UniProtKB/TrEMBL annotation:
Keywords: Hydrolase, Magnesium, Metal-binding. One of its GO terms (molecular function) is magnesium ion binding. It comes from Thermomonas fusca. One of its GO terms (biological process) is trehalose biosynthetic process. Removes the phosphate from trehalose 6-phosphate to produce free trehalose. The keyword Transport does not apply. This is Trehalose 6-phosphate phosphatase. Pathway: Glycan biosynthesis; trehalose biosynthesis.
């Protein structure tokens, strides 16, 4: 592909259609990042707006996030949407066609890994160890100097977690069960009502969302990258979460 074509800016997505199945990443897509993911808040108007859009789509709206489903529900309460959590490892509202990931870590062993992560990163008080229950996210957004230490720890910890893989992200490295990814999660939703037979549309901002973009592109859907990440498989772009919310607001 000529360079000029590669560098051509991606168009904004078209207005929402009632024939879509809409999949939305949460952090960095619907909501701005905070240094600490626990500080992220959902404006009540956004939950209401998403519920309205879900209604217009006959329920074909799912949140697909690196957070666990319990964490997604806490954010959007009292609204509760079909969801793919932990990058697709957890699903609610669709059955995953493949078996549960083989990863099974004893609670005591998991607690030890989490405790070791906190001890290992004690020298970087603004780095954050996020225990998601079955996944462990190590964030250095607030303290970039912590990155090498995070990477060293993650490599060591991976050896103690059979069936796990490393999931790189934006200022975060995550240890998570191998198996499903966001593409597989979206495919699982699309196999069942109310998602089946609709045109898939997925918006996300991070490396892990590229699995979703690939799947959606294969299904003649619309893939939307949020922010200026490059390279990307996405065919459309929105500048930031505020632009995503404006796009949704027009739809609602
Ligand atoms: Mg994201």
């Amino acid at each position: 592909m000529p360079a000029a074509e590669t560098d051509a800016p991606l168009p904004a997505p078209p207005p929402l259609s009632e024939h879509w199945a809409l999949f939305l990443d949460v952090d960095g897509c619907l909501l701005e990042f905070e240094d600490d993911p626990d500080l992220v808040r959902v404006p009540p108007s956004l939950s209401t707006q998403l519920a309205l859009i879900a209604q217009r789509l006959d329920g074909a709206l799912a949140l697909v996030s690196g957070r666990g489903i319990a964490g997604i529900d806490r954010l959007f309460a009292p609204a509760r949407f079909p969801a793919g959590g932990l990058h697709g490892v957890e699903l609610r509202g669709a059955a995953l066609p493949q078996a549960e990931p083989a990863a099974a870590v004893e609670p005591a062993a998991w607690a030890a890994v989490v405790a070791d992560a906190r001890a290992w990163l004690a020298a970087h008080p603004r780095a954050r160890v996020e225990d998601k229950g079955r996944a462990l996210a190590l964030h250095w957004r607030a303290e970039p100097e912590a990155e090498p230490r995070v990477r060293a720890f993650a490599a060591l910890a991976l050896a103690r977690l059979p069936g796990y893989r490393l999931q790189p992200g934006d200022c975060v490295l995550e240890l998570r069960p191998d198996g499903a990814d966001k593409g597989a999660a979206i495919a699982a939703f699309l196999a069942q009502p109310p998602f089946a037979g609709r045109r898939p549309v997925f918006a996300g901002d991070d490396l892990t969302d590229e699995h979703g973009f690939a799947l959606v592109n294969r299904r003649d859907g619309i893939s939307i990258v949020v922010g200026n990440r490059q390279p990307t498989l996405a065919t459309h772009r929105l500048a930031d979460p505020a632009a995503v919310r404006r796009w949704l607001q027009e739809a609602a």
